[in-house]
Sequence to fold (161 residues):
Amino acid sequence: SPADRANLAGVRHILLVLSGKGGVGKSTLSTELALALRSAGKRVGILDVDLCGPSIPRMLRVQDRAVHQCDSGWVPVFVGQDKAIALMSIGFLLERPDDAVVWRGPKKNALIKQFVTDVAWGDLDFLIVDTPPGTSDEHISTVEALRPFQPLGAILVTTPQ
Fold:
């Protein structure tokens, strides 16, 4: 629908960060990439769809913040004094940041779709999407929801051996 397109309409490039296994540094890479792009003068958003281990809020020291609603959906958390990085994560929706998320497919997929359509990103040069490890339903949901916005590509994080 046209409303769905509106929230990502101002996003120029979408990058997915993926890996075949956990613990290889996807969230670290997503965070460092966002910080590097910001220092290059870009406006950056991070969408943390790692529902079981949302670590980016802690990496950016905003784990105690909350997201708010506005007319066009959720307002992401803005990071840093210059507020140049916009962040949306399930970590902001949990009662306690360390709560585990034990959800089955349909509910996870609905949340991912909501994250794609209902976050008021505004104008961004880059949206970095940090995904869970592996090749699960969440990846399919994320890519299908983002397909109309033609993601620029994916960064695959591997182990060095």
About this structure: The chain has one domain: 11-156.
